[in-house]
Amino acid sequence: xxxxxxxxxxxxxxxxxxxxxxxxxxxxxxxxxxxxxxxxxxxxxxxxxxxxxxxxxxxxxxxxxxxxxxxxxxxxxxxxxxxxxxxxxxxxxxxxxxxxxxxxxxxxxxxxxxxxxxxxxxxxxxxxxxxxxxxxxxxxxxxxxxxxxxxxxxxxxxxxxxxxxxxxxxxxxxxxxxxxxxxxxxxxxxxxxxxxxxxxxxxxxxxxxxxxxxxxxxxxxxxxxxxxxxxxxxxxxxxxxxxxxxxxxxxxxxxxx
Length: 257
Prior knowledge:
The chain has 257 residues and is α/β, with parallel strands linked by helices. Helix content is 31%, strand content 23%. It is built from 9 helices and 14 strands. The chain has helices at 20-31, 44-54, 83-90, 120-124, 151-161, 184-195, 212-217, 230-235, 247-255; strands at 2-5, 35-38, 60-62, 67-69, 75-78, 100-105, 108-111, 128-131, 142-146, 166-169, 174-178, 202-206, 220-224, 238-240. The strands form 3 sheets. Strands 8-7-6-9-11-10 form a 6-stranded mixed beta sheet, with helices on one face. Strands 2-1-12-13-14 form a 5-stranded parallel beta sheet. Helix 1 (20-31) packs parallel to helix 9.
């Protein structure tokens, strides 16, 4: 089987740990001949520690499904928002102090106001952050709007203005916008094709709105945890406990070991 995992709230706990029992079960599944990959909404910089810990040696995806990498880190597929889409999404919010945004290009964040305190974590991680300007010619991995009270309205605005784009509206006030084909389902189909694994031999695990297409494409889908998005739960064949309670580890022990 090809076992395709989301990271946060699927393998990784709410306090950003990969439990030892989960890691041991994943490693045991690999020794039994199963193929293990990861598809995460995290950018590469924050995903890499978990990718290394899990020992991912096959194609995998970061930034949802926008960026598919090989085992050496080479680019296999890269989907990006076009420059015109980026400028159109952000131009009229340059002077809007009720919402912040980030335009993510590799490990660089282009934002409305780099001095805003919400970006302190970026400075603490020594990541590059700079002011966004229309006309920079940026093709972006994703655009993120930050502003709890405004993001539902912004979601509707983006849907009307750019119906071709993919949108993930999170309950904590974040709206992520990714390019067409940059979803996990498209990436998983691509990865399975590269590996020669038929769809009915693919099992996907996830919990979030961005996992819905991956769960829907896989031959078998497992929703994880009590906070699973309703659409992800509807797309799944079964539902297991959170990583804190060993949900994925128990599934692997029952079905893959």
